[in-house]
Amino acid sequence: MTYPTWDEIRNGLFCEGRTYPMIADETPTFMGQPHATSPQDLTGADAVIIGAPYATSPTDEYAGVKKVDWLAAPMRIRQQSARYRSGYIQDFDLDVFEHLKVVDYGDADIPKEALVSQDPEIILAAQAAVEEKVNHALDAGALPIVIGQNSPCGSYAIAKCVSEHTKGDVGVVSLDTHWDAARIDTVTMDPRIAGGGSWLQKMLELQPNISAKHLIEIGPRGMMENPEIIRELIGSGARFISGWDLRKMGIEAVCEAIGHAYEGTDAVYAHFDMDVMGGSGPAPGDILGELAEPIGMTDYEAIRIAHELGLRGVDGFSFICIPPGSAVIYRVIVYVIMYLLAGKAIAGRT
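Given the sequence above, the corresponding structure tokens read:
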């Protein structure tokens, strides 16, 4: 699968003749919205787009896929958003940008060393770079939406900031193929690192106002997990809807169950690990390499859940493991963000 160049995209069927604010030579802002370059530019914003191009691998590959394709997700999602002429979503007869101020805050200043090193200090520096931008958004009263690829930069960093900005308890809605609930990061073996296989467990351990009883985990399935850990989480009050359960229940029942994260909480963080789609989305699961599993979530189901979160209200939102290389998958992420924001706009009107 060959991804098109920016020149091919901007001269293509839906983009030709249009201009966009640019973050970099090949990176337009998300949906052509204003480019924020300082915390002052976030004043009055309802949502802030932040890129976190970080991959957990010191080699040229992650999970059997070229790292350059993983890291390109924040740029490519912005490129694909350029094809849409406005924020008007015909499903709802609603122009999101007539109701919400959205700005693109560019990418977090992740150290270049993080591209080739899994030294714990460098990982923590990369995490801190994401936290800085997320905290700026939260300080401005806006919803941070982080387009990442690996933990901790696309998951724990956002949960931590939401937790630290909230006096009461924080609920968590997590979509994933894997629970990411190992006791310790197996790459570094450092207890400070909320890594790809351990970020959720570290969130529960390190953030005192986030607990399993306010967590709903949607999408894991099959034979991937340590039964002791999963049974402990469920026994502590976590709500679990597997990929199998989702098919049995139907998406509207799943959206109703999301209320579990809102009961008794003052804020909610949403985590979308897009390997949850497996091969059930509009591109084959093989593009995910080692991360693909059967009984995946469809694109509609992920978009519908995002819209439900917008309707209910969400305080932090982020992506990791966005299937790399497929233009249509990057468009799915654009839809997830826009239908989330549509829910937020609709809720604000009623």
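The longest strand covers residues 210-218. Try to locate this feature in the token string yourself.
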